[in-house]
Design a protein that fits this description.
By secondary structure, the protein is an alpha+beta fold. Helix content is 18%, strand content 25%. The radius of gyration is 16 Å and the shape is globular.
């Protein structure tokens, strides 16, 4: 099983807040698989997903679940948490992201592409003092476009101080935790990301698969 407990008990909180940090929820099996995939990517056994590399920030690798059964159990857990029907759940991204040693500490917050109704973060290795930071009190109009949109000075005057504002909520996740939030609806960003490795799986229930990464077909 990917998760240590039933995720459905957290559904109301996720739907109310639009984000949730689930502490110590990932199973030993899933953590082992994540660590193994990270090791393979670092050894060169897995090719970098060059099409979507973000220069000066992070490398990305396309993640494969260890088995169809494991992938299906992951889908069922996420469906129970989000309230989406399991048979409609579509993976729009499944990228292991490794942040470069010179990645900026405080990038502009962004919203994910429209296909990322929910973004799910599974930390594998965390650099010092890093955290996902969400902005649930700011504009939550979903981005329905094909690319991420970044907050600008025009959107939020004083952008350079956004992480010191009351709107910024660092989640301070740890290994074994899972973060899930409305990826296309809530501004978010990883702060102080250097050296961090996180698997991001992004899902929707409308069949949107712009990168051809859905395995549930």
């Amino acid at each position: 099983m990917p998760f240590k407990s039933d995720l459905s008990v957290h559904r109301d909180q996720l739907q109310r807040d639009g984000y949730i940090l689930l502490k110590d929820i990932l199973s030993t099996k899933l953590m082992a698989e994540l660590q193994y995939f990270l090791a393979r990517s670092r050894s060169g056994s897995v090719a970098e997903y060059g099409t979507w590399r973000i220069g000066g920030k992070k490398q990305q690798f396309l993640f494969d679940f260890p088995s169809t059964e494991f992938a299906n159990k992951f889908r069922d857990g996420i469906a129970a948490l989000t309230g989406m029907a399991a048979e409609k759940l579509t993976i729009s991204e499944r990228h292991l992201k490794q942040y470069d040693s010179d990645a900026p500490d405080y990038p502009a917050p962004h919203k994910d592409r429209g296909a990322s109704k929910y973004s799910i973060g599974l930390p594998i290795h965390l650099g010092p003092e890093t955290s996902v930071c969400v902005f649930p009190t700011l504009d939550r109009t979903p981005n329905d476009g094909p690319r991420a949109v970044f907050m600008t000075e025009q959107d939020h005057p004083g952008l350079e101080d956004i992480y010191n504002s009351p709107d910024a909520l660092p989640l301070n996740e740890e290994l074994g935790d899972m973060i899930i939030f409305l990826g296309s609806g809530i501004y978010h960003e990883r702060i102080r990301p250097r050296g961090t490795a996180v698997l991001y799986i992004k899902v929707n229930d409308q069949g949107f698969d712009p990168l051809g990464e859905n395995i549930y077909t």
